[in-house]
User: What shape does this take?
Amino acid sequence: MKMLLLMAKALTMDTKDMVEQFDEGLQGIRMNYYPPCPQPDLVIGLTPHSDAIGLTTLLQVNEVEGLQIITNGNYRSIEPRVTVNSMKERLSVATFYSPKLECEMGPAPSLITPEKPAFFRRIGVGDYFRGHYSRELRGKSYLDVMRTIQDEEKKGN
Assistant: This one.
């Protein structure tokens, strides 16, 4: 929660919005081991995608990224992509911090102004997860589903 509060402060966002969304939210961890692969160009890994949750931290050992909606586009999420190496093994540890299921997913009210209207819709967190996980991994496609008309017009100009 500390990292999310610091991010809110850096975005000049009311920290109360972040607390309401994430206090007592869900946490998870995933560890992946990728052994050396003699033909890495033949491996089909995960396509670039955007994680459904609020914050993902990724630790990659043996070196070889949800907040975009809540921050109304001020914080851009990355599109992580899994790759393998022909010579080195790879170990990644990802931790996930998700909003609580009883909340709505959408831009923080403190970031919506007449000059910067909401660029994403508000829906229940459970509905957001169902929609996200029922789609194929095609880049940030679910972010596109969440966009509002104002954001589409902004992107077109």
In short: The two ends are 37 Å apart (CA to CA). The chain has a mean pLDDT of 77. Helices lie at 2-10, 15-22, 67-70, 125-133, 141-146, 149-156.
